[in-house]
User: What shape does this take?
Amino acid sequence: DAKTTQPNSMESNEEEPVHLPCNHSTISGTDYIHWYRQLPSQGPEYVIHGLTSNVNNRMASLAIAEDRKSSTLILHRATLRDAAVYYCILRDNTGTASKLTFGTGTRLQVTL
Amino acid sequence: DTGVSQDPRHKITKRGQNVTFRCDPISEHNRLYWYRQTLGQGPEFLTYFQNEAQLEKSRLLSDRFSAERPKGSFSTLEIQRTEQGDSAMYLCASSFWRSSYNEQFFGPGTRLTVL
Assistant: This one.
């Protein structure tokens, strides 16, 4: 799986939007962009994924650059419960995709 | 459905002892994964099963590690002759494999401390 680069940490105020960036300049045409997050003392949980178009779900939005070399996870209104480590992961879609290759992620702090 | 469960949640052992962890996946999921996570790092892949077949093993999985999924349901991860470097959180995940993507659902993990 191709490598991703994320900032080590970010801070946000509660109720404000948060934009978490991810660079993946070596992404291949068959790679999907996945985001997982890990709340304190829990296993990771799926957030969202996309290929080329921007995606929205109940948790977040994913904005993908036109050249696909970067993406941004958007939390529209951060809450204290969103404090977690967010991982951006590329996964091949050729049908053999199995493991998730995690980096060190971005630790998001949310303050009142 | 109660999600992925792991047992025990915590294990303290002395160096040289053997330990075994259990993972119960979500019932209809045919893929099961094991990961290891050390402090400040993201989880690292160890191995995965599709049904009862072990399809991939990481080079991190030394000869002291063995995983089984005998009937394609629960899985066990055994570490023989534990070393202090084995201290970590061991995470299990499961998924229902489809060709597009397969979201992995993680359990709470088993924290191993080797003294």
Remarks:
- Residues 85 and 114 of chain B are 8 Å apart (CA to CA).
